[in-house]
Amino acid sequence: MIARYTPREMGRLWTEQRKYDTWLRVEVAAAEAMADHGLIPPEAARDIRERGAVDAARVAEIEETTQHDVIAFTTAVAEHVGPSARWLHFGMTSSDVIDTAHALQMREACDLLLADLDLLAAAVRERADEHRRTPMIGRTHGVHAEPMTFGLKLALWFTELQRDRERLVRARGTIGVGKLSGAVGTYAHLDPAVERGVCDRLGLTPAPVASQVVQRDRHAELLGALAITAASLEKFALEVRGLQKTEIGEVAEPFAKGQKGSSAMPHKRNPIGCEQITGLARLVRTNALAALENVALWHERDISHSSVERVIVPDSFCALDHMVRRFTRIVRGLVVYPGRMRDNLDRSRGVVFSGTVLLALASRGVSREDAYLLVQRNAMRSHDEGLEFKALLLADPEVTAVLGRSEIERAFDLDVQLRHVDAIMDRALAAEAVEVS
Hints:
By secondary structure, the chain is mainly alpha-helical.
C-alpha cells in the first residue's frame, strides 16, 4: 500500500532543499559504490555519508560566483565533509547526479499521485454503486438519446481512472532509471559496475545506454501520462458543469455553509471547482507538449531541456495533485437530484424509446426502412405538437396493425431498457488497480 500524505507534501518534494538533499543521496550512494570497488578509500565514503550535508541557501550563495549549480552544490557539501571531499563526485559528470536524483524525485511524486488516484477512484466507485439504479437520460450531441443510469456514468469514470493509474505506473517504471556513465555515456572514468551499485542502493534500474543524459523520451512519457490523467479529470468536471446548468439541474457541486457564489448575485451556486480543474488541465497538457520538445537535443546533450524541466515537472505534478484532491472532494460531496433526472428523462414525452419501437416493428416483419419511417413520423409529431409519443403510436393504425398494446407498452418499460445495467456495473466496478512493483 502507498502511504497517505499531507496536501503540502507534493510541494515540499519539489523545493530546492529537497532537490539538493536528493543529489546528496546520489553522491553518498556513488561514494559507497566506488569504495566497494576500491576506487576511493572506505573512510572517504564514510565521511561523505556521515558528514555530508547541504543547505540550499549556501548553494545559492556559492552559485552567484560559480554560475554552475552542481559545482556550487559540491562546494557546499565539501565544506561539511572536509579533506575526504576530494573523493566527492569522483569521476562523475553533473548529469550523473542530476538525472539520477531527478528519477528519484519523479518516482516519489508518482507514488503520491497514485495515492491520490486511489482515493478518487474509491470515492467514484462508492457513488457509482449508490446510483447504479438511478435512471437518467443519456445525451449524444447534447440531445436526449436513450435512458441510462447515473451510476453507469460514474462507472465509466471509474474504469477510466483505472487506466490513468495503469499509465502512471508504467511511466513510473520508465523514468525509474539512473546513469553514471560520464560525459558522453562511455564509462570512461567509472566502471558500469559502479553504476549498478548506485542504482541498486537507490532502487533504480541502470539506463542500458545513455549519452550525457538520460534520454528525454522517458520524461515525455511521464508528462504525457500526467496530461492524459488531467484530461480525464477535465472530462469528468465538464460533465458535472453540464449537468449543473440551471436548465438541466441534475447534479451540483457541494456548496458549503457561508460560501458565496457571486459578488453581485446572491443566488449563484457556481461549479467553480470543476471550472478550476478544467483550466488546470490546459496547463498540464501544455507542459506535456514542452516535454515532447525536450526529446530532441544536440548530439550527446545540450542544456535546452534543463530550464524547461525545472518548470514543467514540478508544476505538472503539483497541479495534478491539486486537481485530483479537489475532484475527490467534489465527488464525495456531489449533490444528486434523482427527481430532476427522472423529470428530464420524461420531458421528451417518450421519444427516447423510439429505438426499441423500431426493433419491435422490425422483429414482426416490417422492413427496417418502413419501420424507421413509421417511428420517425410519430416522433416528429411528438416533438412538434407536444404530444405523448406512446399515445401517438397507439393511435396510428399502421403501427397497431403490427404491434399490440402490450408490445407497445413493453417498448416503454424502463426496467426492460435498463435490464443489463447491474451486470455492466458489476463488471466495471470489479476492476483491480495495478500495483506498483
